[in-house]
Amino acid sequence: MVEVLRNVVKRNRAGAAVAIPSVCSAHPDVLRASLLLAETLDREIVIEATSNQVNQFGGYTGMTPADFVTFVTDLANETATARERIVFGGDHLGPQAWRAAGAETALARADHMVADYVEAGFGKIHLDCSEGCAGETAQLGDDVTASRSARLARICCSINPDVLFVVGTEVPPPGGARVDEDGDIPPTSPDAARRTLHEHDGAFGDLSEKIGGLVVQPGVEFGPTHVHAMPLERDPGLILALSEHPNVCLEAHSTDYQKADVFPRLAGMGFAFQKVGPALTFAYRKALYALDQVRTEKGALQAALEEVMTEDPSYWQGHYSGDEAALFHQRHFGLADRIRYYWPQPKAQKAVQDLLEVFDGTIKDSELIKVFDAPVLARAEGLKGTQVQRLIDAEIQNALLPYFFEEAA
């Protein structure tokens, strides 16, 4: 299925404003709704897993790469989604999950991880060795990053040469993105992007032809409480960094919550790979909290999640700030959506199940219009399943739909 990606890159670099969405999530409702939408629209979709989420030790999801592929494939079968339209991607594959250890220990584990990803059937491989390990600087230079990434690339290709590599990284630090003095998100400079690609070209050697994507910051980002919207009239000219690389496109991370007209604009600037994640689990949470407001015991789900999050603050502390009221709001409604790490926990699962079992499919329209937007209700009418499942799927699909701005080819 890597050919799907290469075709998207080829068309984009030929001047067409086309892109493929990459859904980075392990949540079953998010993935099911996303697969259903791709099948309905007759479009391809990338489903991604991150190195801390899915690895040989199970990550925070408890899944290995092979487990994840089986998990998504089962959802595809359940939703009658053609397997041929799904491309599996690995995100930020490198030593990050083990960077508290020394570099060689962390890299040895990364060696094992990327081998498992490729063996499991992942074809889009984002290699990211930019963060330092124990005793190193927090951010490494392009030379070391590229050398370590090339090491992992050689392992990938020894297992299956039919892979497409994405290199580079633009990730906001805990607590939100860095802003300039005007409160704007500064995009990567073309010169910096060109240097990153040049270093990877040299380190990869004869494998450089398998590099198909470069992660850069176009100026789209979000923090815990604010979306930094991309000015449509601005073009940082990052496509210039690819002038000698006709088979490479740009990849945008953190595109969540942008307005619909941003995505075709990004595609026109060379961003053929557009990643989304937190906005979709945010939509899932939004649907559940809406349902939580139309049952007799209003707010019971939110109360249960508050208990779970305060018992174990490790997933949100360091990402949110402010007084107690601000922290409460960010825990439940923050755009960083750190609540997504808590849905798999037993207490949260039971609270969700208790909520869904309350309803028998007869929530009155007069109640629904109080808590769901009209476009969500309209989309839910055309979906299959129980009333509550259709509402959840519709909320998620409406968040993802702007990424499918292109007509099916």
The average pLDDT score comes to: 94
* Uncertain parts: 172-176
CATH class membership of the largest domain: Alpha Beta
Any guess at the CATH architecture of the largest domain? Answer: Alpha-Beta Barrel
Distance between the termini: 16 Å
Characterize the largest beta sheet: strand count, sense, and whether it forms a barrel: 8 strands, parallel, barrel
Count of strand segments: 10
Q: What's the CATH topology label of the largest domain?
A: TIM Barrel
Rg from alpha-carbon coordinates: 21 Å
> What is the number of independent domains?
2
Shape: globular
Q: Total number of helical segments?
A: 14
Instruction: Indicate the proportion of strand residues.
Output: 5-15%
Structural class: alpha/beta
Largest sheet strand order: 1-2-3-4-5-6-9-10
Helical content class: 40-55%
CATH homologous superfamily assignment of the largest domain: Aldolase class I
What is the helix/strand order? HEHEHEHEHEHEEEEHEHHHHHHH
Please outline the helices and strands.
Layout: H1 2-13, E1 20-24, H2 28-41, E2 45-50, H3 65-78, E3 86-93, H4 103-120, E4 124-127, H5 142-159, E5 164-167, H6 190-204, E6 211-215, E7 221-222, E8 227-228, E9 249-252, H7 262-268, E10 271-276, H8 278-292, H9 300-311, H10 324-333, H11 346-358, H12 365-371, H13 374-381, H14 387-400
Parallel strand pairs: 1-2, 1-10, 2-3, 3-4, 4-5, 5-6, 6-9, 9-10
Antiparallel strand pairs: 7-8
Helix pairs in contact: 2-3, 2-14, 3-4, 4-5, 5-6, 8-14, 9-11, 13-14
